[in-house]
Design brief:
single chain; disordered N terminus; alpha/beta; 7-stranded mixed beta sheet
Length: 534
């Protein structure tokens, strides 16, 4: 569940560096970092692009040309600049408090703008050593060096908001569309986990830290966790203002779990804007944007299901697609599928209705009968599907596993054609060791399993956060925590429900594929199920 021993050695190296620097993390070197435009340095560091918008050019391994967009500084040193590991190599930290201060291991003088230019262009350190072949040699002008120096000087210089000497503050965001029972079930898991964590580490602050003099003694790493519940009410367009107000009142270090049956988009945009780590919310639609960094999701939810259905339709073409839906999240799923179908030159015939109204069964049956070679996609929950009982649908029919929930008995209405279910989870009936572990944990603590998937997701989010906070040590930096999680692949073994989960640099969805399962006699058929990676 933890990062590799190489990472532990690397963190120890950071701690030693802090000791040698006298722990003055609030002081910034005035000799570097005076460039007026930090955005130029950020673009070069994160995106591998020059201020002109063109890619950086570099040489690696002696004679191999690469572009910065292929091999940016962030790729190896992390968004935080706190370093990482590449195979058998430890990539050193280059954040300002380390780069522009003397290094104890290996010993070297502090970098200046001039010595940084020599390093980036020639691969030579201030003490005359040449770095290995992994370090790219860049073609940069003096102005570009100045911009990079300014950016690095301010990179990861102090603790992120939400942390003080005694506590580290988190929030879980829940929107009012979430049913009260599900809300209570998830909060039971979160509050129980946080309470136990604080109880089990209550004596940490009393332990002596390393160092025998005041200048070499580090502040304690222990912080009590404080978890706040942020409830969002009203339409999604009002959420941002509510989040801004809560954040002004009490900034948080990270968002933990969370629930919304609507789109997570407004919350995700807030996290990106304020650079807040947002760990594994439970949501049906992410609305994530390309390049998002701060939010980690389980999957793309209904958007992934739309891609699974589009993939299936491409292999078994139809003349038209009828989509039936109500509510914001299913409407977004229908929109996602409609966009995918445009590339296949297929028309989508939508039948939307208000969720408080009855399903227009007669109109649906009439459309299905008039289009016998159409596919019908029912973005509906069980309560609406029940209205189809006794009415026969013609043509191929698709259901959403996410909207059906976890119990499939009597979930599927009568149809005359083949029926399928988009399913981005483990196959029904498949052994799930991670779920068994969570169930044992919950049972031993008297937690009722009323919303198993959401509760197990919340538990996994807590495990991830605990592991990440443990391994960032005394460096309470959000980007550093996310960089660490990029290399914590082994922790996904504790994730229930999702097949083939992976974590890695740049990956913001743990589950990336799923199945389209045939429905026979009202039950999904898992034999010969094919994994689809859209």
């Amino acid at each position: 569940m933890s990062v590799s021993s190489m990472f532990r050695s690397w963190v120890a190296m950071l701690l030693l560096a802090m000791l040698m620097m006298g722990c003055d993390s609030a002081r910034q070197d005035n000799e570097v970092g005076d460039a007026p435009d930090l955005d130029d340095g950020r673009r070069m560091y994160q995106d591998g692009k020059l201020p002109s918008g063109e890619p950086l050019t570099a040489i690696v391994a002696g004679d191999v040309p690469v572009l910065g967009t292929q091999f940016s500084c962030e790729s190896c040193h992390g968004r935080s600049g706190m370093g990482a590991s590449e195979g058998k190599y430890i990539v050193p930290p280059i954040a300002g408090q380390f780069l522009f201060a003397p290094s104890p291991q290996p010993a070297r003088p502090a970098y200046t703008e001039e010595s940084l230019a020599r390093l980036l262009r020639e691969g030579m350190t201030p003490d005359g050593r040449y770095l290995g072949e992994l370090m790219p040699l860049y073609k940069l002008t003096d102005d570009e060096i100045t911009a990079m120096t300014a950016y690095l000087a301010r990179l990861s210089y102090s603790n992120s908001p939400g942390v003080d000497d005694k506590i580290i503050r988190f929030a879980t965001v829940i929107t009012e569309d979430v049913e009260a029972g599900e809300r209570t079930a998830v909060l039971d898991v979160l509050n129980t986990f946080v309470g136990e964590k604080n109880s089990n580490t209550r004596l940490e602050s009393e332990r002596w830290d390393r160092g025998y003099t005041p200048s070499s003694r580090l502040a304690t790493v222990h912080r009590d966790w404080v978890l706040e519940e942020w409830t969002l009410t009203g339409p999604p367009e009002s959420w941002d203002k509510q989040l801004e107000q809560r954040y002004r009142e009490a900034p948080v270090f990270a968002m933990l779990s969370g629930l919304s049956n609507d789109s997570w988009g407004p919350i995700g945009r807030f996290c990106e804007r304020h650079e807040i780590a947002c760990l594994f919310p439970g949501t049906r639609v992410t609305d994530a944007a390309e390049g998002d960094f701060y939010t980690l999701y389980y999957s793309r939810g209904l958007e992934l299901e739309a891609d699974l259905i589009a993939n299936h339709l491409a292999a078994q073409p139809v003349t038209e697609v009828i989509q039936v839906f109500c509510g914001a999240a299913p409407a977004k799923a229908a929109s996602a599928l409609r966009s995918s179908l445009q590339t296949e030159d297929l028309a989508a015939n939508d039948l939307g209705f208000e969720c408080d109204d009855a399903l227009p069964v007669a109109e649906l049956i009439e459309r299905s009968e008039s289009l016998p070679n159409a596919a019908i996609v029912l973005w509906l929950e069980q309560e609406h599907l029940a209205a189809i009982e006794g009415g026969l649908l013609s043509g191929r029919v698709y259901f959403s596993s996410t909207l059906l929930g976890e119990e499939y008995d009597r979930a599927f209405p009568s149809v005359t054609g083949p029926a399928f279910m988009a399913h981005p989870y483990r196959l029904p009936g498949q052994v799930d060791p991670a779920m068994a572990r969570f169930e044992a944990w919950a049972k031993s603590r008297g937690i009722d399993m009323t919303a198993p998937r959401r509760q197990s997701e919340a538990f996994f989010a807590c495990l991830v956060l605990k592991d990440a906070v443990k391994h960032i040590g005394r460096f309470f930096i959000r980007e550093f925590m996310l960089d660490m999680l990029d290399h914590a692949q082994s922790i996904v073994a504790y994730l229930p429900y999702y097949p083939r989960p992976t974590l890695g640099p740049g990956q913001r969805f743990v589950n990336k594929g799923g199945y389209v399962l045939p429905i026979v006699d009202g039950q999904p058929v898992t034999q010969d199920a094919t994994w689809i990676l859209p």
